[in-house]
Amino acid sequence: MTTNDTTYRQAIEELETILRALETDTVDVDDLTARVQRSAELIRLCRQKLRNAEATIDQVFESLEDDEETDEFEENVT
């Protein structure tokens, strides 16, 4: 699975798996760099997904506010 196909939940689960491995010292030095790089990719992915979700939610609320303002305007005009 590529990073682009990874869901937020999958990324968090993979990060938790990497963290558990690092905490138990079962990762050899050769594998450590790859795991740290993968962790950085996953963190970037999670941050981007959170930013996208926030932007989408903001748009929904703005749309609702616009609808409410339009309704109030129409009530005042009629």
TrEMBL record:
InterPro entries associated with the record: Exonuc_VII_S, Exonuc_VII_ssu_sf
This protein's record includes keyword Nucleus: no
Domain of life: Bacteria
Short name of any one Pfam family annotated for the protein: Exonuc_VII_S
Biological classification of the source: Bacteria, Pseudomonadati, Bacteroidota, Cytophagia, Cytophagales
Subcellular location: Cytoplasm
UniProt catalytic activity: Exonucleolytic cleavage in either 5'- to 3'- or 3'- to 5'-direction to yield nucleoside 5'-phosphates
UniProt source species: Hymenobacter daecheongensis DSM 21074
Name of protein: Exodeoxyribonuclease 7 small subunit
GO biological process, one term: DNA catabolic process
Family: Belongs to the XseB family.
Role this protein plays: Bidirectionally degrades single-stranded DNA into large acid-insoluble oligonucleotides, which are then degraded further into small acid-soluble oligonucleotides.
